[in-house]
Structure formats: structure tokens, C-alpha cells
Amino acid sequence: MPLRLPDKLPAIEILKKENIFVMDNSRATKQDIRPLRIIILNLMPIKITTETDLIRLLSNTPLQMEIFFMKLKSHTPKNTPIEHMMMFYKDFDLLQKEKFDGMIITGAPIEHMEYEDVSYWQEITTIFSWARTHVTSTIYICWAAQAGLYYHYGIPKYPLQKKMFGVFQQRPLDLKQPIFRGFDDLFFMPHSRHTEIRRDDIVAKNELTLLAESEDSGVSIVMARNGREFFITGHFEYAPNTLDIEYKRDLGKRDDVEMPLNYYINNNPDNPPLVTWRAHANLLFSNWINYYIYQETPYDINKIK
């Protein structure tokens, strides 16, 4: 089944060109199916790119999903047209009485700031708390993963000597977990961050389960509340060219820019990227939707608690 997306969302035409089956709401309303309701809180600067990346991953299941976009009232994005935000995004105030089967909270380029110094910290922590009673399962990505672990469990973040930048090999610690159904013994994940969370802090908390880690990039996936919360420190959703865009954007403008590791063919930035994470990214999101949302969420969505 396809995804139900807001009419005229730019991602629709982009994904149709990739032969990904999506439909707008006008067509979807003709189908007598209770779709899964997925809400995305998009904190990334370039909203349209992130929307497309996430929708691409969500499209890979036979289940119909209806996608909603949430924005923060306390923050105005600078890199996305206001018309786009007004057409496709709603403030948390307008959505807080609704319930959703799944939620994705993205990263944000504010890692160097203390959490409490972030201008929208109060609003986003209200959303973190709200998700626990209004969403069946939530995925926190990159900065949101660190922020969620800090807010819910007191896990600190630590500055890195240099940016964790590239594609790194990860090891799943328990392949019997449904989130890893079909996974190999190793998988790869892009990372782009200046801070980290540490293994010792995670394993010291009985409420947290460390699911995957890397010798190079450290903690990568943490689970809590039997799968109602997942914290992913990397960017499974990244398109093939995202790290390349970041690298070339910052090259010559900052003194801490290094080539992304394990990314370009033969580690030569004149060559195209070698994509090594796409299959497992699709698999992880499909498993999340199937085992932690579809199999767990009530048919009457108002019974989520």
C-alpha cells in the first residue's frame, strides 16, 4: 500500500520519479482502510530534503500510512519557504489533542549548545513528554536522540575532538530483537555530529537497552520502554549525496572540515559515494513500522496511552 501524503507536497513528485508508490489525500480518501498515522517533527534546516528522505524509507511496507508534519511554535526556520511551512506543517498546539501510531523526531544542527540554552527546549521537552502518552512508538534521530536520552533518562552528551563524519560499521548486539529481523551481523550507518553519548552511561540505566554500537562511532541504537522509544545517533535516512553536500558546503569555510570517512569510492572525494547503508535503513524502518507500531497499536487510535 502507498503512503498518504498532503496534496502538492514536493516529495510526491520526487518519489514518483524513483518509482516509489505514493498517493495524495484526494485519492487516498476513496480507500476504506484505517491508515497508520505517522507524525514527523522536522527540526532540520532544509525541511523539504528531510521530508523526502524520511518518506522514502517509510514507503517500503505494504501498510498504508498517513503522514503529518509538526513544527515548533517557538522556532521559525530560515531555510524553508514560509509558504511551505504554512501549507504542510502544524504547530504542536494544534496537534496535541490527537494521537498517532508512530512519530519521528529529527536531528538539529545545535549540538554545541547546552540543551537548556536551546531556544525551543521548553517546547520540545513538552513534546517529548506528550509523545509517551499520545504515540505508540517514537524514533529520535541524532541530536533528538541525545536530547531525548538526556531529558528522559539523564544521559549526558560529550564533545568530540573532531566531527564524527562518514559512514561507519555497526554491530547489532541482539539479532533476536524484532527491529533487527533480516539484518546481517554487521551494517553501516552515516554519522554527522560533534558530540556523543557513551556506552557506560547507557548500560548503567536499567530502563535502556543498547541495541547496536560501533568501534569507531560508538553507541548507535538504544531502545527503551520495550520499543516505544528508539534513539538512533546516526542518519539512516540520509540520501546518497547528503554527506557530500555537507562536506563541500563547509570546505574552505571552517577549519575543522575533514573528508567523510568510508564514504567516497577509494576514499577519493573526486569519486562518487559508495552507498552501503540503504538496504538496512529500509529494513530497520520497515521492522519498526511492522513490529513496534502495526502489531502493537490499537485499532481505535484513541486508546493509545
Task: Give a structural overview.
With 305 residues, the chain is α/β, with parallel strands linked by helices. It has helices spanning 10-16, 25-28, 47-58, 82-88, 92-95, 121-134, 143-153, 199-203, 242-250, 278-294, and strands spanning 3-5, 22-24, 36-41, 65-71, 89-91, 100-105, 135-141, 158-172, 187-196, 208-214, 218-224, 229-232. Strands 1, 2, 3, 4, 5, 6, 7, 8, 9, 10, 11 and 12 form a 12-stranded mixed beta sheet that branches. Helix 1 links the parallel strand 1 and strand 2. The radius of gyration is 19 Å and the shape is globular. The two termini are 27 Å apart.
List descriptors:
single chain, 305 residues, alpha/beta, 12-stranded mixed beta sheet, 10 helices, 12 strands, globular, Homoserine O-acetyltransferase
| Structural category | alpha/beta
- Based on DSSP secondary structure assignment, what is the total number of beta strands? 12
**What shape does the CA trace take?**
globular
Largest sheet: 12 strands, mixed
Low-confidence parts, pLDDT < 50 over ≥5 residues? Answer: 27-32
Report the C-alpha radius of gyration, rounded: 19 Å
**Amino-to-carboxy terminus distance:** 27 Å
Mean pLDDT: 89
Q: How much helical structure, as a percent, in the residues?
A: 25-40%
Q: Strand share of the residues?
A: 25-35%
Order of helices and strands: EHEHEHEHEHEHEHEEHEEEHH
Separate helix tally: 10
